[in-house]
Amino acid sequence: MAEIVRLLSSYNTAVVLLAATLLGAAGAVAGTFALLHKRSLVSDAIGHAALPGIAGGFLVALAFGFDGRNLAILLSGAALSGALATVMISWIASQTRLSEDTAIATALAVFFGLGAVLLSVVQSLQVSGQAGLDSFLLGTTAAISAREAGTIAVMALLVALVGLGLFKEFRLLTFDAAFAGAMGYPVRALDLGLMALLLLVVALGLKTVGLILIVAIVILPPAAARFWTDRLGAMTALAALFGAGAGAVGAGASAVLDDLPTGGAIVMTAGALLLISLVAAPRRGLVAQGVVAARFRLARRREARARSGQGLGQGLGQGSGQGTGEGRARP
Amino acid sequence: MVDGLTVTYGGKPALEDVSYTAPPGGLVAVVGPNGAGKSTFIKAVMGQVSATAGEIALFGKSARSNRSVVGYVPQRTSVDWDFPVSALDVVTMGLYRRIGWLWPVRAKHRRQAFGYLDRMGLADYADRQIGQLSGGQQQRVFLARALAQDADLYLMDEPLAGVDAKTERTIIGVLQDLKDEGRSVFVVHHDLRTVPEYFDHLMLLNTRLVAAGPMSETFTVANLQQTYGGHMAVLPGGATAVVD
């Protein structure tokens, strides 16, 4: 126990925990709108599409004489290739006969494939730092410096603030884009703004969560929150709370247990929250709905029994065996 | 005002060379068979689909620069009914432009929105999630949101489709009020029996504009037959029926 407290209270770990917590909250705020805007799969594609950006960024950084691990360059590369993937998705979906889900799967596969190829190129080079690129796949807190964590924390806070600042506009966009357009809102720009927030979350989450599982911190917390409330404000707040909790618990667990990948730990925590929500939430949860359904069936059976009892009485009164026959037929 | 409006989807025209100038303060029924381009017309005026050719001007200015004056009631099927918003939240959306970018919705806006809900007879349902309202109530919520927009031009895509009698009366009352306040209202409407009763202008669309003008001059058997083609039967005694 004392060992755990010591591990978690080192300055470096504390900053990393703070970053993971804020990142979880920011991802959930942007994710609430992504979920409601039916952009869950697009978020996944953006995450996977970050890989060629990272590997390409590493190569570009080397070519210009920087350290390949320069975080700013890597994250810019990730954001750029994620943005290209979204452009590709909307182009395929709007200009060809392929459906949007096909467009998303195509972009995800093509970009991730390109990333895998570039990554193998990077790994074949005999330069320092290339081994660390693997950690972007599943995330690790061990590789994050206090400075990087500080940057992630500040940026995450910024994402959350922009998301909350545009709360009203995003609510309108995700609920009724046609109406937003009729009112003169720049619907396309708002849509792009939301995508930009998602891109930022993906880029910021690469080191902690990793690109393969990044979709989970965007989608699982709001999906869990949706079970508890019918209000967008409450849903966003709850999602942020769930995301922050998942970030903190996941990053903490992986700091204590050396071999535990941070991304996996964060996602498992968020997944547990979702599981609890979908089972136990009042009204929308499975248990609550099961109770409602059971009550309904019970009431109907009681009604049916009352009716067949009545039929029995009538049947006896009329001296016919029909009523009793009906009564016996019911188990 | 619409001049020579043409909209094409994938090479096929949905609307061809439609020109029409709306009367100020009038109730215009937009009527035509399925696929005649009625919704496309509404969407083009709203700027949701772009015109292949032609001009759209709203109150003397190009539509692009003047869009905030358009009030809109969408087709029921275009809404996600499981979305986490209450009836009051939806009506408040009509006020967003006046609240302004970034500003949060405040108590006075909620009071204002509640007034519009009340006018629709929905005061008791303000806090309901929209999916838990009946079809007619949902339609009235969207009408309340349009009223909150306080626009000079309203576009409504089948607001009377599948609503109960009470909702129909409420909506017709509101349409009359809007007209009396000097606003123009375009309503896509399917029920030919009530067209002459509810509206005073008529646009007959079948990809091209078949006829348009004051109801008494436009609502004629010849025009309707031309609009609906073979799908239209004139019954004995002058009554008409549309066979889809």
State the CATH superfamily name of chain B.
P-loop containing nucleotide triphosphate hydrolases
Could you say what the CATH architecture of chain B is?
Answer: 3-Layer(aba) Sandwich
Kindly provide the name of the CATH class of chain B.
Answer: Alpha Beta
Topology-level CATH name of chain B: Rossmann fold
Name the CATH architecture of chain A: Orthogonal Bundle
Order of helices and strands of chain A: HHHHHHHHHHHHHHH
Number of domains of chain B: 1
Overall description:
The complex is a heterodimer of chains A (331) and B (244). With 331 residues, chain A is mainly α. Chain A has helices at residues 2-8, 11-36, 40-63, 71-95, 100-124, 135-138, 146-165, 167-175, 177-182, 187-205, 214-226, 232-256, 262-280, 286-317, 322-329. Chain A has a single domain, classed as ABC transporter involved in vitamin B12 uptake, BtuC (Orthogonal Bundle). In chain A, helix 3 packs across helix 10 (187-205), helix 4 packs antiparallel against helix 5 (100-124) and helix 4 crosses helix 10 (187-205). The termini of chain A are far apart. Chain B has a single domain (2-242), classed as P-loop containing nucleotide triphosphate hydrolases (Rossmann fold, 3-Layer(aba) Sandwich). Chain B has 9 helices and 12 strands. Chain B has helices at residues 38-46, 87-93, 96-99, 107-119, 135-149, 165-180, 195-198, 215-218, 221-228, and strands at residues 2-9, 12-20, 27-31, 53-58, 61-62, 70-73, 153-157, 184-188, 201-206, 208-214, 232-234, 240-242. In chain B, the strands form 3 sheets. Chain B has a 6-stranded mixed β-sheet, with helices on both faces. Chain B has a 4-stranded antiparallel β-sheet with strand order 2-1-4-5, with helices on one face. In chain B, helix 2 runs parallel beside helix 5, helix 4 (107-119) crosses helix 5 and helix 5 (135-149) runs parallel beside helix 6. The interface between A and B is medium-sized, with 24 and 32 residues.
